[in-house]
Amino acid sequence: MSVVAEPSARVRDQGRAVRWLRSHIRVLAPLATLLLLVVFFSFTTQGSFFTTANLTNLLSQVSPLAALAIGNTFVILCSEIDLSVANVATMSTVILVAVMGGDNPTGGTTGLNWPEWAAIILAVGACTLAGLVNGLVTTLLGIPSFMVTLAMLEISIGIVTLVTQGQILYLKSSSFTNWLGSAYFHQIPVIAIGAAILLAIAYFVLGYTRFGRYIYMVGGNREATELSGIHTKRVITAALTISGFCAGVAGVLYLGRLGTAQPAGVGGDVLIYCIAAVVLGGSSLFGGEGGIANTVIGLLILGVLENGLDQVSINEYSKIMIYGIILMIALVINVLALKLGGSDAT
Amino acid sequence: MNQEPPVLELRDITKRFGGTVALKGVGFDLRRGEIHGLVGENGAGKSTLIKIFAGVHGDYEGSMLVNGRPVRFKSAADAKAAGLGVIYQELSVIRQLTVAENIFLGVQPVTAAGVVKWSRMYREAGRHLSDLGIHVNVRRPLGSFPLGVQQMVEIARVVYSGARIILMDEPTSALSPRECERLFEFTTRLRDQGVGIIFISHFLDDVLALSDRVTVLKNGVKVATLPRMDANKSQLIHLMIGADADVLEEGYEQGTILPPATDREIVLETVGLRAGRLFQDISLQVRRGEILGIYGYMGAGHFELGRSLFGVTPSEGGVVRVRGKQVRIKTPAQAKGLGIAYLPENRKSTLLLKASLTRNITITFLERIRRVLLHEQTERRIGAEMVNRVGAHPANAQLPALSLSGGNQQKVALAKWIRYLPAVLILTEPTRGMDVGAKKDVLDIVQELKREGVAVILISSEPETVMSISDRILVISKGRIMKEFVNTAISKDVMLSFG
């Protein structure tokens, strides 16, 4: 029987602090990156970055993307992917205006002229249905979610083209949706409050409910979870359905902000930004690790980066490349920090 | 018997892994044009020997000679260059390619420009195979032929690429009796052409039918090499598991006596259950408070049977009844709902290594703690309770599962299923890789469960484990039940002779 010396109290406490840091490295590393970026831009933009006006603008910019990223957080956490979100969101904007009735630029209104609440329900409902289809086809037919959601992406484009007939649809400025996208509540954009509520709900579900636990476990080891008697197919289907729902809601928020629904969609790179937000924030692309907190940090990194670069006086054309380079650096920092912390680096 | 030097010879081979001695002073020789059978139970050292032949282990004590020349293989390429080919149980063929392409894998006949000469390849492949007695259309994809043919094509490839020594590791596990016969004819033909063959198998009947000589390994030591006519099955088993000659008297067969049958309620019953090549015609019953042991060598189909009973892989026919009611078990969730619990042989299939012990344990019954929300406090309490109950160490339920040793991980895996007593508990290799103390812990828990009324199905390829706590034993071989043992004395040699 050997004698083991007790480590001194100072060493023990040090050990505990280091252990806490290590176990939370997945959130801390991206957070550090975010803070670095904020500091960087505070200095290089001669003060125009860190103003209330700019920060609230940043929040508004990021809010619709946040709604989208919530959906993919659920999906990526359980080791799947939803590539259809951006186009499903576009579908939501288009259905919403078409059903509610839009402002015709040359006067009068277009569309079905149903009450706005009905239009919202229909739009979000259609997107949720799209998510459900994604889920069922993935789990029941065993086709990888990558491919199924890719197909849904195309279907959504088709529906958008069909409904808009190639035209731009204008949101009624008197609508609730418009108010959502442009109003302020005590200096905070309403749209940001909306996004924050959604984020809070998602955070609660993922962290404090049985369903949330199942999501993490399906992503962590699908086979072991299946062999523990969990309906893993139902969990994955639910995640993809939620993603569809979030895309629907995101569409409403985008519409409120942009004011138009058009075939070109909510923006070219929205899908990439959505997934980038989840991954940059520290969630594992392979599932099982991460969460809403990570996604929020990722969203802020993207938002700060975009917003900051807009204000730094550099060549317009080099901006995109610089954006990409900084993104790459942020990823490298994340990965290195994870390895240092002892986790798997993905 | 010829007087040439042996085509392959091992002298005084000793292989250590840290503190464990896997092989000790093993001597072995293979003659030209001979089939030499190699037998030994699990853990006797056969795999280590194969790895030395195959060039996987280059660091060992002792020497190996090929045609009288000393060699030491440090890689598979070395072994191949010396004319040695290994055919594993998992075939290394490419099913999407044609038979001819498989024969010429990596060595297709090409023109100066590098274009494949297809007609020449097909012609030569066809000729080579018919020389060996195989007549197939070499232009068809290999995958379109049954397993037995694929295996022979792989052997043909190895011979074609110059191997004069062939090592076959458990070649007949997945073959039907007819395919076995074809393989034996083929192997004998190879032997007659001067190839030296080492035939490793636990089917002693096959080994005795085919081999010219048989070598027995036990606990890393070569016990005997016998010419075929001097060997019979029971003698081989005796050599494989018996004690050394000078301790013959001390109950070496380690027998046990099975209790009489009970008439308690039948909890799980199957009639004629089958699943393709994996298992056929399985009819068994398990009763309340009884441990049914199912023993079979690896690949016998009993692991797949366990999976089928838990809904992991579907069965194709037959009847399953749980508590008298007929059911079709299609998913693990459904099986769990019927009161069936299951532990696979592979820990990776049952634990999330990065998650805490608590989370791993509670996943099976989260719905019983709270319907919708989680309750961390209750979970942690249960986690600590279960960790203590199964004696896992270190007993900190918040640690991630990967910080525990394999044996302790296995205990945690068991803990998942026993908080609420299941009706049926199916265990597959529950004590694999565990030390004696941990094995005893797990088996004690299982016996405790039995006393509380659980019907246990214990599936294992370790005879000792099955014998130690089972009330009844089924021996499975090649997917069929060979024998049922109840209310009788049983010993390891008897089990091996049926497996």
Feature tags:
heterodimer; A: 346 residues; mainly alpha; two-stranded antiparallel sheet; two-stranded antiparallel ribbon; globular; B: 499 residues; alpha/beta; Rossmann fold; six-stranded mixed beta sheet; 17 helices; 22 strands
Characterization of the model:
The complex is a heterodimer of chains A (346) and B (499). With 346 residues, chain A is mainly α. In chain A, 72% of the residues lie in helices and 3% in strands. Chain A has helices at residues 9-23, 25-44, 52-77, 85-100, 116-141, 145-164, 176-182, 190-208, 210-220, 222-226, 232-258, 270-280, 292-311, 316-340; strands spanning 102-103, 109-110, 169-170, 184-185, 188-189, 260-261. The longest helix of chain A is centred in the last third of the chain and has 27 residues, at 232-258. Chain A is globular and about 75 Å long. Chain B has helices at 46-54, 76-81, 99-103, 118-131, 147-160, 177-192, 204-210, 233-241, 302-309, 332-337, 357-362, 366-369, 376-390, 406-418, 436-451, 463-469, 492-498; strands at 8-17, 20-30, 35-39, 61-66, 69-71, 84-87, 165-169, 196-200, 213-218, 221-227, 256-257, 266-275, 279-287, 291-295, 317-322, 325-327, 340-343, 424-428, 455-460, 472-477, 480-485, 489-490. Chain B is an alpha/beta fold. Chain B has a six-stranded mixed β-sheet, with helices on both faces. Chain B has a six-stranded mixed β-sheet with strand order 17-18-19-14-20-21, with helices on both faces. Chain B has a four-stranded antiparallel β-sheet with strand order 2-1-4-5, with no helix packed on it. The A-B interface holds A 208-214, 216-217, 220-221, 223-231, 288-289, 344 and B 310, 312, 331-333, 335-337, 342, 344, 348-355, 359, 363-364, 366-367, 370-374, 416.
